[in-house]
Give the backbone structure.
Amino acid sequence: MPLQILLNNLLYDLSEIGIPFDEIDEEDAERPQSWNMADILRFTFVMGSISSLFDVATFTILLKVFHTDAAAFQTGWFLESIATQILVIFLIRTRRPPWRASRPHRILALGSLGALASGIFLALGPFGSLFGFADLPPVLLGAIALITISYLAMAEAGKHLALPASAQPNRAMLARQHPASDAALNG
């Protein structure tokens, strides 16, 4: 397990190397926000609670539904953990919903998705046993994928509770930046 945690941390750290290259949304540049400890704490509490809820759900599903042994549990937890922590960056990097968000910088996208693919390959590929990983049945992999998708949906919803109201993009700003989608905003 310690080697798996170190591998998880290494892959995650590598995946986030592209953050400094990423650009902020236009409305953030127009309305810069100052650091406010209460807002940071609220974001941390909301997003941390969602993450912890899904950790408990993952542990429960792995242990109580699939009755995994130690190696399968560690493999399942590793896959869920690496996927959620890497993919959530694409949600929290912008205040906008992902379908209206600016595109992440190529270095961030390639680094993050490359690290995720590497983690999946190391856990499920021919070298998995070197790291203490086990083969997982397709139904368990499907459950991990469903947990990951559910987490991302909850994180997107939670993001709007976690951010201060003054930081939320308003409809007029989005309509000005995406005139073709103005009808969708008002309809």
